Amino acid sequence: MSNNTKEQTEVIEFSATKSNMVHPQQVWNVTSQQPTIQQNNLVAGSYSQRDWSLGLCGCFGDCKGLLCSWFCYPIYMLMTYSKAGQGFCDCLFGGPLPLRVKVRTERGISGSICGDVFATACCPCCSLIQVAHEVENTKPLI
């Protein structure tokens, strides 16, 4: 019987030492880099605001632009988009409003989105001539 007890004790001690064993832990250093996005932010008041170099009704002074916008409006709009560095798809899906807003903000021209909507909706030909004149004769501030 004592033999039997001795075996049981050894088994119990073995299992106790087995469960109390400290296992080395592997340490993993994980570093993750967050993606960075570079944005061009315009700060209000960082440049002086000016008026359009050609007024909305000043389109009558640009005979070439007037004829092109009245008789070949889509082609004239595509040419203006191209000169402004925009693509065909921008012209096709955007219409004249995004180009007008882009040119106005890039060149520091005073105005608002409401004025741009009004000009492109009520006077699309004159508005496009005005934008084309800015694209051809002025450089972006940005």
From TrEMBL:
NCBIfam families: A_thal_Cys_rich (TIGR01571). Belongs to the cornifelin family. This is Uncharacterized protein. It comes from the Eukaryota.
